Amino acid sequence: xxxxxxxxxxxxxxxxxxxxxxxxxxxxxxxxxxxxxxxxxxxxxxxxxxxxxxxxxxxxxxxxxxxxxxxxxxxxxxxxxxxxxxxxxxxxxxxxxxxxxxxxxxxxxxxxxxxxxxxxxxxxxxxxxxxxxxxxxxxxxxxxxxxxxxxxxxxxxxxxxxxxxxxxxxxxxxxxxxxxxxxxxxxxxxxxxxxxxxxxxxxxxxxxxxxxxxxxxxxxxxxxxxxxxxxxxxxxxxxxxxxxxxxxxxxxxxxxxxxxxxxxxxxxxxxxxxxxxxxxxxxxxxxxxxxxxxxxxxxxxxxxxxxxxxxxxxxxxxxxxxxxxxxxxxxxxxxxxxxxxxxxxxxxxxxxxxxxxxxxxxxxxxxxxxxxxxxxxxxxxxxxxxxxxxxxxxxxxxxxxxxxxxxxxxxxxxxxxxxxxxxxxxxxxxxxxxxxxxxxxxxxxxxxxxxxxxxxxxxxxxxxxxxxxxxxxxxxxxxxxxxxxxxxxxxxxxxxxxxxxxxxxxxxxxxxxxxxxxxxxxxxxxxxxxxxxxxxxxxxxxxxxxxxxxxxxxxxx
Length: 557
Fold this sequence. Notes:
Elements: H1 3-8, H2 23-26, H3 39-44, H4 58-71, H5 75-88, H6 90-99, H7 101-108, H8 112-118, H9 120-123, E1 130-133, H10 140-144, E2 154-158, H11 175-188, E3 195-201, H12 207-210, H13 225-242, E4 247-250, H14 255-265, E5 271-273, H15 274-294, E6 303-306, H16 310-325, H17 330-334, E7 337-341, E8 344-345, H18 370-377, E9 381-384, H19 394-402, E10 408-411, H20 423-429, E11 435-438, E12 445-447, E13 450-452, E14 455-456, H21 463-473, H22 480-492, H23 496-500, H24 511-528, H25 540-547
Parallel strand pairs: 1-3, 2-3, 2-4, 4-5, 6-7, 6-9, 9-10, 10-11, 11-14
Antiparallel strand pairs: 7-8, 12-13
């Protein structure tokens, strides 16, 4: 993208007369260039004396940032440094993240963002994102108009009830929508001024937070029932009115609310739930890619899930959709997915089964533990989404390896501390035969004469591209078929060289290309199915790539 094109984007579109000058432009993270302001710009914008005299290139500024980040003693300190950079110079922040995505993503998102959310009230520095609380009922539309960027195209919203595998963090869960939207920009090029992170503060049941005088949220227990639903509905309607055509991603809601809100709003709102649909797509992509290692067929897989929440059910639903594409009936496809939850094997004879679990409660004698379930069912793949660390024990992994030449073992719980097993454990306990992936990153593992590079089943492979495709095509809806298409796209981009190292996902360094291709596939579906009134361009991928933001400083003279 040329500088001229960049200047046409709304977040840089200011005339000479409208431009902030002096310290005001230095305090504007969208337009601030720091020491990269040229001599002519310093003269025009009245910056003489406000900056050191030497003019630096953006590349030189990047070197300074990298030096500072790498000198920090902990990942939380690195997180704080990067957030501070984002607050003062967004273009430089995204240049650093995009050019070093494998190093920076674990800092700005999982696993470090989990710790940041746990300590959010103590590390709070500067407002970022937007808060809608129960105190705002009746006025949500009016307060949404306080958001400074009127062209928001995507909202990530949470109520903080189920943050990663950490539980109820109330208003401190704001770190999640902030982090997610940073990935939308870094991975898929959605301009930062088109991204709006929102916290729906409906209270918290976390006693530690309620007793902390520094907690930033409202001091009350969680709203339930009509009080909760009325605020959510007011927000949904107001968001669509204030930001016409906006895409809404619901994120880290509790299981009960997540499933029912998705079902309630998906048919009349451009909306999806990444924990359900995005996780489903990224995991199924990993399973499809695994078939190129194991030599099996998707139709022959039996999957056992540890955890029957949003993520597990979401994966099963996408897997079932994939099998239906291959001609298998929905009933038979569901029978290839089995679940162990906190009460043991999910089977038809159990009482009080949650509605979202009922389709996967099959006829079988009840088993109260994972190991015996593995031995009884003999699954080809074991997926962990329990938020319970070290539940894939040595005995469980060895059992998987006993009846599978190449057992598929995905420990997908986030952050890293919650993973069901480590990469080293999976490879060691399976004699190097496991096909392993995790939700958060693990270092390469040397076992025997091989070095395995664990794949990271990170939703960042899916949701940025899906969101980008919806935004570019101006689709009115987000469908399950779009996520299945995204899963196939992602699996197709895994190279033979990746598979040879045990990795069932592309390297994160390829994430921009991955997102662009997924976006083009999703946009094509929107055009083909009439989900948009926008005419289809001759080259959908080129349209996607043209839209994508790049961190280039605008010229002001």
